[in-house]
């Protein structure tokens, strides 16, 4: 018998009596009076920055200035201007030089400061991880209280890859001292569009 | 000779300031966990859901695994099954050989530690670079991780500085964590960019979608998996959950229980390989199906590897992870490892005060301390305890079952401690090690009670 069949057979033999999956009643879950303030406060606590933007032109100008001043800036958001489609074909050695990346997020989670990003929004799966500085853009109406509402809204298997990103990369592996900028982005700014 | 938890812990506590530092640092992590947990009014409800979902998963595991495999295959992922550590290592080795790959990066996976994958591949002339900062530190030092979430928690920054000076040519004596982390970042970015194959662990595998989730703070799993042409994800079969919506419960519990963070920086959901990428999942048994059949111990398979039980454990905090001499240390390790090798790990269920703190913080409500107690009974009845322990237990059984003898022994004990204190205050008495013996009471509680009851009447 193959390892697979053997393992499955032993499991079937040894598993306990069938139990129903519990129903998750989200009515008992925390709700925030002001999801934006909660999101901003939590993100600050984990090393990220949030800015409320009422006019998308502000981000467009920021992107244009960054493109002029920084060596390698990637934009993946059509609403901000020309999209750098070529990153789809770039290898890690080239993407390693990306100073800043602008990426659209689907939704933000107030309880933990996480932003969901689908693969299609990254163009290349490496972009939000390999860039030195990450800019995420979400709409204020897409802020939800907790992960429960987030998973209700998302279809995580719709694309080949997707991730929750909560602030910049970090580590505390040396004596529990928090250091921002482990392997991924050294900073994370989230623009929340009103 | 066999090295037991007590022997190894004895060595660890020789350095008292370091022991105190270790104890306090882990307690600090435990306090952060408390703060995060208390921030959610529904915390206990979340633990209950986590526990029930895992119970339901274990009760129908064979079907969920089939569902997971079917969906993963449909997503274009190759699925492998390994009965034990050896098969797991062989499967990984075969994939590496097929592609003739040299450059391999690995993000944290306790399963590959359990299977000793690095050592196996090393014997076959293949080197793996561990990319989690803590794991890279201990890899340089040729040590195993001492904690499943904080692999280098037994080390001070001076140790890390010396290690990096030797391996990464950092400035001698520069102990700044920021500087040392930056050096590791530069070193490992080169490794990521060059890598042909990435090995990751799996935090959760979703039956309904055939996908899996990997959580890191550093971003190392993503840097590896999205660069390499081949991605191998290794998982124990207990990582399964039925539906994607259940991730909300587990991701809310995991980081809060582990480090007190509201969520890890990256929670990456993998479903399909990139164009031209090969993605493999290795599903490993290695004793788990046997544990599933042990009624008293099966719910140890609910574990989500947050290490909250480590950080709270008074024994772990004061003895260090290496004293458990297994890949997964701490209270949860002490109930998992006797299943893998009862003889070699017979000491572990005794490395506990049975205070129950582990069970109280467990996000999926595993009755860890009760299982420790039950393992002790199994281990004694199977004959895996030292003769000295067996004899003294029999002696105690005799004394405690005979009240007259118990009282007589108490009297003799009190008297001799008063008259000849050297009988207990000497090196032969292990309770005297690093402790003063208590002052013997003048009378027993029973004598006191009988006397006072009379005087009341």
From TrEMBL, chain A:
Name of the featured protein: L-lactate dehydrogenase complex protein LldG
Domain of life: Bacteria
Domain annotation LUD: ranges: 100-192
TrEMBL record, chain B:
Name this protein carries in UniProt: L-lactate dehydrogenase complex protein LldF
Biological process terms in GO annotation: lactate metabolic process
Keyword Repeat: yes
GO molecular function: 4 iron, 4 sulfur cluster binding; metal ion binding
Source superkingdom: Bacteria
Domain 4Fe-4S ferredoxin-type as annotated: residue spans: 293-323
Membrane-crossing residue ranges in chain numbering: none
Keywords, comma-separated and alphabetical: 4Fe-4S, Electron transport, Iron, Iron-sulfur, Metal-binding, Repeat, Transport
A matching Pfam family: LUD_dom
UniProt xrefs under PROSITE patterns: 4FE4S_FER_1, 4FE4S_FER_2
Organism lineage string: Bacteria, Pseudomonadati, Bacteroidota, Flavobacteriia, Flavobacteriales
Xref: Gene3D superfamilies: Alpha-helical ferredoxin (1.10.1060.10), NagB/RpiA/CoA transferase-like (3.40.50.10420)
């Amino acid at each position: 018998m193959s390892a697979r069949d053997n393992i499955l057979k032993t499991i079937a033999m040894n598993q306990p009596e069938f139990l129903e999956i519990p129903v998750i009643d989200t009515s008992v879950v925390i709700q925030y009076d002001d999801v934006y303030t909660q999101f901003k406060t939590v993100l600050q606590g984990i090393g990220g920055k949030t800015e409320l933007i009422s006019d998308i032109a502000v981000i467009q100008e920021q992107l244009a200035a960054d493109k002029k001043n920084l060596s390698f800036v990637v934009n993946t958001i059509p609403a901000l201007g020309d999209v750098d489609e070529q990153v789809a074909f770039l290898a890690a050695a080239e993407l390693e030089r990306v100073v800043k990346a602008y990426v659209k997020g689907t939704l933000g989670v107030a309880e933990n400061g996480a932003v969901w990003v689908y693969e299609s929004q990254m163009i290349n799966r490496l972009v939000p991880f390999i860039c030195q500085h990450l800019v995420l853009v979400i709409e204020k109406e897409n802020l939800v209280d907790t992960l429960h509402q987030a998973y209700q809204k998302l279809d995580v298997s719709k694309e080949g890859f997707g991730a929750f990103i909560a602030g910049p990369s970090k580590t505390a592996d040396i004596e529990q001292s928090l250091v921002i900028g482990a392997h991924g982005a050294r900073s994370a700014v989230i623009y929340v569009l009103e | 000779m066999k090295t037991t938890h007590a022997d190894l812990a004895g060595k660890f506590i020789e350095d008292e300031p370091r022991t105190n530092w270790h104890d306090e640092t882990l307690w600090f992590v435990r306090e952060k966990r408390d703060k995060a947990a208390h921030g959610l009014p529904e915390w206990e409800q979340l633990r209950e859901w986590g526990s029930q979902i895992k119970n339901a998963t274990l009760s129908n595991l064979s079907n969920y695994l089939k569902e997971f495999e079917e969906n993963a295959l449909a997503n274009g992922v190759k699925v492998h099954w390994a009965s034990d550590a050896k098969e797991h290592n062989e499967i990984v080795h075969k994939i590496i050989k097929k592609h003739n790959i040299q450059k391999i990066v690995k993000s944290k996976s306790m399963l590959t530690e359990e299977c000793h994958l690095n050592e196996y591949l090393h014997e076959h002339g293949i080197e793996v670079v561990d990319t989690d900062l803590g794991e890279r530190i201990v890899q340089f030092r040729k040590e195993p991780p001492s904690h499943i979430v904080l692999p280098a928690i037994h080390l001070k920054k001076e140790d890390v500085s010396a290690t990096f000076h030797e391996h990464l040519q950092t400035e001698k004596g520069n102990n700044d964590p920021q500087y040392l982390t930056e050096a590791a970042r530069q070193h490992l970015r080169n490794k990521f960019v060059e890598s042909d194959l990435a090995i990751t662990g799996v935090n959760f595998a979703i039956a309904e979608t055939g996908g899996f989730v990997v959580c890191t703070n550093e971003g190392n799993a993503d840097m590896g998996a999205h660069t390499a042409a081949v991605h191998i994800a290794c998982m124990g079969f207990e990582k399964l959950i039925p539906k994607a919506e259940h991730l909300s419960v587990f991701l809310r519990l995991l980081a809060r229980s582990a480090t007190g963070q509201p969520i890890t920086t990256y929670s990456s959901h993998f479903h399909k390989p990139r164009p031209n990428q090969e993605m493999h999942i290795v599903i490993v048994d290695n004793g788990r199906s046997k544990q599933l059949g042990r009624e008293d111990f099966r719910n140890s398979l609910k574990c989500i590897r947050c290490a909250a039980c480590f950080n709270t454990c008074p024994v772990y905090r004061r003895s260090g992870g290496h004293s458990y001499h297994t890949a997964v240390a701490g209270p949860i390790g002490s109930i998992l490892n006797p299943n893998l090798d009862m003889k070699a790990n017979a000491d572990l269920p005794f490395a506990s005060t049975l205070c129950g703190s582990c069970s109280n913080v467990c996000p999926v409500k595993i009755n860890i301390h009760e299982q420790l107690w039950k393992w002790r009974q199994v281990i004694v009845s199977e004959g895996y305890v030292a003769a000295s322990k067996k004899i003294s237990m029999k002696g105690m059984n005799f004394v405690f079952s005979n009240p007259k003898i118990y009282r007589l022994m108490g009297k003799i004990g009190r008297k001799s401690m008063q008259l000849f204190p050297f009988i207990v205050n000497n090196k032969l008495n292990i309770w005297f090690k690093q402790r003063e013996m208590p002052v013997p009471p003048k009378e027993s509680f029973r004598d006191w009670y009988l006397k006072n009851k009379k005087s009341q009447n």
